[in-house]
Amino acid sequence: MQEAHPPSRVASRLAPFGTTIFAEMTRLAAEHKAINLSQGFPDFDGPGFIKDAAVKAIRERHNQYAKPTGEPDLVEALAAWWGQETGRDLDPYAEITVTSGCTEALAASFLGLIEPGDEVILFEPFYDSYRACCALAGAKPRFVALRPPGPDAGPTAQFRFDEAELRAAFSPRTKAILINTPHNPTGKVFSRKELDLIASLCVEHDAIAITDEVYEHLVFEPDKAHIRIATLPGMAERTVTLSSLGKTFSLTGWKIGWAIAPPHLTAGVRSAHQFLTFAVATPLQHAAAEAIRNGADSIADLVAQLAGSRAFLADTLRDAGLRVYWPAGGYFIMADHSALGIGDDVEFCRYLTEEVKVAAIPPSSFYSRAELGRSLVRFAFCKKLSTLEEAARRLGALGSASRTGAAAR
Q1: What are the average pLDDT values for consecutive 10-residue runs of the chain, which has 409 residues?
Q2: Are residue 134 and residue 238 in the same domain, yes or no?
């Protein structure tokens, strides 16, 4: 007789979140031998010169604990890169903290800077760890919706928020607003006008901005350039800019991230970071420095590759009967599946994985108001062309199946 295990014990602040939707859909994809267009990781490797630099660092005995706030080689490379990008000099030892990916940088920022009971504004749909970070810090999230463009909008129109809704979200208890641009999952790149509005509200309410900019280099439209809110008037002293190596160089498993902030905010980030991970893999930091210093051509090649993949997958989804919302940056395409008549987003993604053998993400889990995401689905295009071509072959039957009723549930 199998021994009974005691029931799971999960702290009440985390119990509502369960297992992440990314893990669930990746497991389902493996179970049904589906092409995994759900989780945002490439099925190809990053540049060889960066991997060679990691091997070199290991062989040169960079294998003990790193400096907790980041290896000098990496923080100096990041400071030089920031100066080139923004025209502003950083103190690499006082304003940069190296973290275990951007996810740890987010957690450290919340735990180190947000008090229990503070309010934090989140745009929805959101990356799922944002809400969990609020729970860990005891913060109250206030949500502002990014809504898809209407049927009369142009083919490259982006998700938008309502200015009145954003203004109403700010209150005397607002401590921070979290901005993700380019945005996961919508592919939105926030405009200068939008960021100016957010900046003015931060100044008015004495709030800080925490920005997740992991897709900062993966932008595809010349008229929708990535803008750092930290560079806007009045924002350098109230912004924590977060990013990482993984998306820019297709090395998501390395988990090398960083937080850039003025010293008074860096102090809070570091106060939590030292007890979360203490330090990050030493040889990978040295390789990351090499990537930052010499990776411009590799980034340009990746952007060109992803732009082609974006176009191919968008055409595939339109041919299958979905309405595509054109992404200006990042890894993902959001689409409306409701015309196919295959249930809500969860039912649609389950059908897609089990029957069509292509996995995608049901985005209602990225909303506080789940109904806002029921008609939507998220696909990742950060894949080899051969992978997307096979996905296209499988998706070809989707539209005809729904029209004949074979997919009815």
Answers
A1: 73 86 86 94 96 98 98 98 96 98 98 98 96 97 97 90 98 98 98 98 98 98 96 98 98 98 98 98 98 98 98 97 98 97 96 96 96 98 98 87 46
A2: yes
Same domain, 274 and 388: no
In angstroms, the CA 217 to CA 329 distance is 8
Nearest partner of 198 among 172, 223, 165, judged by Cα: 165
Q: Are residues 162 and 215 in the same domain?
A: yes
Instruction: Report the SS3 class of residue 340.
Output: helix
**DSSP three-state, residue 176:** strand
In a domain, 10, yes or no: no
User: What is the domain-level CATH number for residue 355?
Assistant: 3.90.1150.10
Question: Pseudo-torsion of CA 245, 47, 332, 219, nearest 10°?
Answer: 80
CATH code of residue 99 = 3.40.640.10
Residues 360 and 375 grouped into a single domain: yes
Residue type, 121: I
Rounded to the nearest 5°, which phi and psi values hold at 288?
-60, -40
DSSP string, 78-92: HHHHHHHHHS----H
CA distances from 123 to 188, 198, 278 (A): 12, 12, 30
Mean pLDDT of the chain: 95
Distance CA 284, CA 255 (A): 9
| Rounded-to-integer distance, Cα 289 and Cα 362, Å | 36
Query: Which residues make beta-bridge pairs with 99?
Result: 257
Question: Is the bond preceding residue 125 a cis peptide, omega within 30 degrees?
Answer: yes
E-only strand ranges, 14-169? 35-36, 96-100, 119-124, 140-145
Identify whether residues 302 and 276 lie together within a single domain: no
362 and 345 share one domain: yes
User: Of 208, 183, 167, 199, nearest to 126 (Cα)?
Assistant: 183
Does residue 184 sit in the same domain as residue 279?
yes
Asked whether residue 321 falls in the same domain as residue 257, the answer is no
For residue range 327-364, list pLDDT tens digits in order: 999 999 999 999 999 999 999 999 999 999 999 999 99
